[in-house]
Amino acid sequence: MLLKLCQFPLCGTNKGRSSLCVLVLWLGIASPPCKARIYTNHWAVRIAGGAEVAERIADRYGYRNMGQIGDLKDHYHFYHSRTIKRSTLSSRGRHSFISMEPKVEWIQQQVVKRRIKRDYKPAPPAQNNIFYNDAKWSSMWYIHCNDDIDNCQSDMNIMGAWKRGYTGKDVVVTILDDGIERNHPDLFQNYDPQASYDVNSNDVDPMPRYDATNENKHGTRCAGEVAAAANNSHCIVGIAYNARIGGVRMLDGDVTDMVEARSLSLHPQHIDIYSASWGPDDDGKTVDGPASLARQAFENGIRTGRKGRGSIFVWASGNGGRSRDHCSCDGYTNSIYTISISSTAESGHKPWYLEECSSTLTTTYSSGENYDRKIITTDLRQRCTDSHTGTSASAPMAAAIIALALEANSLLTWRDVQHIIVKTSRAGHLSAPDWKTNAAGYNVSHLYGFGLMDAEAMVKEAERWKQVPAQHVCVESADRQIRTIRPEHVVRSVYKATGCTDNPNHHVIYLEHVVVRITITHPRRGDLSINLTSPSGTKSQLLANRLFDHSMEGFKNWEFMTTHCWGEKAAGDWILEIYDSPSQLRSQKVPGKLKEWSLVLYGTSVHPYSSLHIEKPRFTDMLMPLSTDEEFTEEYNGPCDSECNENGCEGPGPHNCINCLHYFLKFKNNTRMCVSECPSGFFRDDRKRCKKCSSLCETCVGSRSDQCTTCRSGFHLNEGSNTCVATCPDGFYLDNDSNICRRCHENCKKCTTSNICTECKPGMSLQANKCQMTCDPGTYYNGHRRTCEPCHRACATCAGTGIEACTKCADGYLLEDWRCVSTCSSGYYLSEQTADNGQAQRSCKKCDNSCYECLGPGESNCSSCVSGYNLEAGACVVSTICKDGEYWSKYGMCHLCHASCQQCKGPEREECTTCPPTRFFDDGRCDIRCQAGHYAMGRQCHLCHHTCHECTDEGPENCTSCDTDKFGVSLYLFHNQCREACPEGFYHSRWKRCEACLSECNICTAVDRCLYCSPGHKLRNGLCIPLECSTGDFTLHSFLSSICSVSSCTLSPIDARLDSDCHHSCPDRTYNHNDNMTCAACEDKHCEVCDQSQCYWCEEGFVVFGGECVDQCEEGFFVDEEALECEPCHSDCRSCGGPRYDDCDSCEDDFTLKKGECLEGRERNKCELCSSTCKTCYGAGKDDCSSCYSGRFLTAQQTCVSRCPSGTFANQTSVQCQDCMTGCAMCQNSQQCQECRSGMYLHHDVCVLQCPRGFPLGGVCQPCAPDCGSCEEKPTYCLSCEVQYFLLDHSCVGHCPLGYFAVTITNYFLKQHCLLPTLCLPFCFLPTECAEHYFLYDDRCVDDCPEGFFPSEKQQECVRCHTDCASCDGPDDDDCIVCSNKKAVRYNGECLPECPPPTYYDKITRECRDCDRSCLTCSGSEPSSCLSCETNRRKEASGHCVWYHQCPLSSYLDPKGECQQCHKLCHRCSGPSKDQCLSCNAPYFLLNNTCVQQCPLGYYSEDKERVCERCHFSCESCTGHHSVQCSKLAFSLCSSHFGNTTSMLCERCDPSCTACWGPTNQNCLSCRQDYVYLSQWGQCLKSCPPSYYTNSHDTTCQRCHPTCKTCHDQGALSCQSCYDGFTGEEPDCTACDPSCVDCRGPSMWNCTVCPASLILYDDGRCLTCCGDETRHADDPTPRECCDCKKSIGTPRHTLVHTWTINSQGSAKLFITACVLLILSVGVGIFFFLNARSKARPFKPKNTSGTYQKLEPNGGLAPQPDTSPFGEYSDRIIGCEGNDEGDDEDNDIVYMGQDGTVYRKFKYGLLDDDEMEMEYDDEIYSYK
Question: Where are the active-site residues found (predicted)?
């Protein structure tokens, strides 16, 4: 009813509706708010009859059929465009009549479901010898330990599985999430398009939607954990790095039941594992799970997926720990079909976000606290992240480990996988308070399930696994007895389960999952907790209290699931317990009700691990009899022991089994017994026998001494040898946790842990607990190259390469955030600290976050502020009230910044001052990535070097791309530098890069367009082929003669002449005319690159067509944008825009253009048969196929063939014939060629035109002999030689024989030949020009110029230096390297008489270096080395140049503008007094601008900044600012709780208290409403006890006057009733009898205290002891006395009658005495019995019948060891109330003769075992 009120408007104009509105508004306030359902314009429909029927029905009612829902048969997705996309009202209209269609079996309008991604926003280990080159490999702690530790292994043993050869190959995993970045460098290699889909956009591309916040990064991160590629030098290594990975984008839009079902049922025969890290809200109040379609998708996947073996669904358990959520309220993780994954931190501790429940199966790693290491994985925009966390990070890990197991055994069913996980998961170091061992022997916890996954153990188990027996499902009958759930009470229901013994198909003996279906109504669902105890005694917590769950809905047929009974027996008593812990947020008047519950037992009827087919021969037949006695000679028909298998037994004991279920153990008396596990000291052999280990082994795998797995006490297991030793040998250390001698690092001789050496092997030295080669200062040891390599120039010492590896900075550099810089950056300040040796250490430290620039630490040392803040007394304070994303305008109002800015100074995009974390700051702009010409560092963009177009860092050597420079000159990328021209052997590519020519080509214009060949080759059709000379055709003599007859250019055969200039290569628009060695102009005026016959590259606006430049291609051709050439269209097209059949722009006659395709004219809308070879097609011909049947592949000609044609290969994934690499005629895949086309040769699986350093034979390149540089026909027929050899008659010799001399002609052939001595060398042979990298000096070509000269690349000769330079690198006076005048100094390459300002002379480098920017002249590079200052600056005592308004440390600027000294306690200050400090000198700390020696209570000392910081508000004292760092809690903050000093927690008070000091109802300090406080007892009572009255001012109980039994106020006149002995309206006090000292009445029978000589008798008289000799002679002898001797040690006195017999005795006296005797005995018995029945223990304990003195105000007199608790108890729970008006329960008050009032105690307190039930010990903590 309330839901309808929320959905329909009720408030109208008439009176009746107005009244109804008031009622609705009142209900809205008094009851929880309605959650409006959001209906979409999508429907799920079940229609029988197939897709045609569904299409027809959809058309009839205006729907659009979007297709079948995933793999769900007869279920269709309908969409209606004319209904509201998102509405709180379900849709009505003509289309709703669809439900009346006979074929429509079911229809449901889809409702938006809230789904949350579960990440968080703000065997002894073998030697680790696996290494990958991926950038983050060394940081992946959850797979392996650090690289410098050899023998370490992650607890999940992933590398152990890898070493066994399992990497997930052929296993398909898909991530159900917000999409995956399929083109990520770590994912594209393993990306599987068949395992991917975009459900949100209804297309096949799962790419995530990008935005500024990178919101949709979740799926990409999860995918990287599973299957990131290995050894690709990028990011990480996936756990299953050879698995296929896909992604389903389904969370980036409205999530409905249909969306979930489509995702869960995507290609179940192709996908093996579905991984999901999302679910309902983890808010501690939601109860939600899969709806009908998603449930059906789960069931279909389990039943039919993976060819009937069942799909694997892996689910993250949830991140609601902080909200006190319980994952049993999540129907996804609570399902038997999903594997619910929990998380643990690296330390094994519980992460703060973790939920606990009984459905969790296993655990993998994630992170815990903020300081814990997190998961490293792939991230959006092709990046990596090291901050993935939550159970979101754990589920993909589990999916990847399962993929390894499926590779080991692809026949595993979905239940096999769960069994293997249960058997192999280990508790290990996981810390949980509830670890228990169930009856089947499995350790299990609500936090971690069965423990941490073990990948190696799983693959080993999978290798030998046999499928478990069929699953049986036993649905026990429901218990429908309604039970009331009362507050603070337990409802207990016992159900005797049989396991469905009467139905063999459903009989369950051995359990797997147990489901409890339960229906409960309750006023506040979060107050309930539910436990289930199995017949074996294993208790599972099905539900815990949920603090934020205020729902009144209860549970309606909700299924709770537990795995904790796995392997136990099903039959027996199951106990369900429901406990209601009422919170103060609900009325306790309405109890809850348990309406119905039932059990669903899942498991098997036979043991899942026993062999299903065992032959009858028993192990006793094979070995020896079980027993020699013949006790069971007759056939035994009774029950067998649980360790017997199905073959039965001959008696009831485990020694009477015919065959054992598990193992049998042989005893010395030749008897054998069946056992579940072999005992300590025994191992299991392959015949199921327990055999004895070696004597030193505790456990083992064999009988030899080197087969131990653990050792007996006093011995340790030696890793490697597996023997037990008393002490660990050299090279090993003792791991005390595992009692194993583990191997030290390979360089250690002795060590204490794997990474802490104490003694090194010879040749190594101990450096920081590691054994390394000793390296000189300024170098570090490179472990891969095993050499010492130099540090970065900024480092004095370092731990590795790069500027970030510095451990100490070089002179002139300062350490700033692990980087060495010359001066502190903006936002950092110079910190000076004095080391122990007295040296000053300087570094740059980050300013406080509130400062833009600062002078020191803390928020009070700012020197400038960001826009929107003002500098006040050194602190930056907000100058406006504008929020982030707004700025203060000149009109005095806040306006929005540009959307890209986090903070700004104006509305434009270029006016940002700070950027969001996802953007980079670039000169006032916030960009997602840095613009071209900039590089990113520290979230800021910096300018590249002016020669670079793009770069990775500063300097000209870090370019990544090139363009034109600032002068318009084109630059080309070569070795990370942008150069004007490429060196020889490289050509200018269109991408502004220097690309390499072929090895035999010296100059080329493209890779296949050579212009000049290397020696030994000749040019033919743009290619270089080996030179073949016949006799006399080509000799060195004729070659030299020919070049001597050409002009001055002839000496370089690769130069040519254009006009009067010589060129190394002809410029653009010309070509080399080989005949006359000249550069001739291209015939085509638009051609830029040509040869004599054709054009190869045209100017802009033209393309190559038939060797000529044209401005557009002819009809039938299209422009290839990459090659800028005209290429032919597809044969079907008349004109086109591309090469494919569907790129047509116009068609030939009789063809029709449709969607880019030219189709033959045929009847429209009529289906025609494809060719028999095609599966699907777009035409009737056999070359019109669009897909093929299995076993056939689609060619580029759109035909289907069983064998791909030459030059292509069959791609099994795309089912197409794909092209081999260029020149390949036959190949295995795109990377491996097997046979080459004619004219090309196979070389290392690649086809080449020329065999490098070899010769072709049978189409394959054969290598030359080792000494040949090139050869032909056979390996020893050399054409050229390697450098150290000489060519002689096609052989290579080490030296020339007699009659020959060696000459090196490097200018021409770059090879060495033996020449005949009679050869004539003409004069012109002397070089006038040299080859590249050589320079002409003194008529010689040299590779390096002598001193005083420098090599000029332009002139290619050695040019003399400037006269000032002794050596130089250029011709000018500022190119000097060494000066000619030894007294000169060098500055910027110029030799000067002295250093100019602002520079100083550096004696180490012997040159002038720049001063700090604050100095005019200086003596060093530091800011404190100034000698003089610039204008507006002045030098202070420390040598710093500061602005006139600045002062140095320990001083401040006074009103006169002068610097004055601070107070002696201050390090920095704003004035002279001690309360104006800004920072303090050691050992003082800054507190509110004052320096104190110790921080006060409530603060802690921050040693780094020397300030007192306030503790967390929950701490009274602390050691840090977190709540977990309290050293003493501020218990005053424990509202309605008390501070437990042991647990440091706020624990709950008794419900009657509002404040307390302990947990019981006698520890109250104040009371809740309707209770009164009795301070003497510390109790809160419903009403005051007798002798007390209620003080209405403070609702406390005050004691009445001592004479009053009850009263209404203080004083004797306020009595309402009196004690015995007091009558009337006022107390009547009279004297006691003379025999009494004190009494309760006037007679001798009312004594309460007797004189010292008398004994108080029970009747109230004071009597003497019989025979007392001290009595005076004149005292009459009493007629009665006490037998004191007889009464010693007894509680009663014996009365002795003494008579004086004389003649004057009277009978009257005798009768009186008898009456008195009878009365006294009766009274004594009465008091004795009454005292025993009323007596109760009391502290202080007073014996019944004794007295206690009262103070005048009515209180008890002080006594030692008294208790603050009284005897009165007001039971508020669980007990019946006492009759408070019973006079017999009141104390009796007496008054002595001296006026002292006494109380006689007739009873004590309740017995200890009668105390009230304690409340639920609910606690809450600030941790």
Answer: 177 (charge relay system), 218 (charge relay system), 392 (charge relay system)
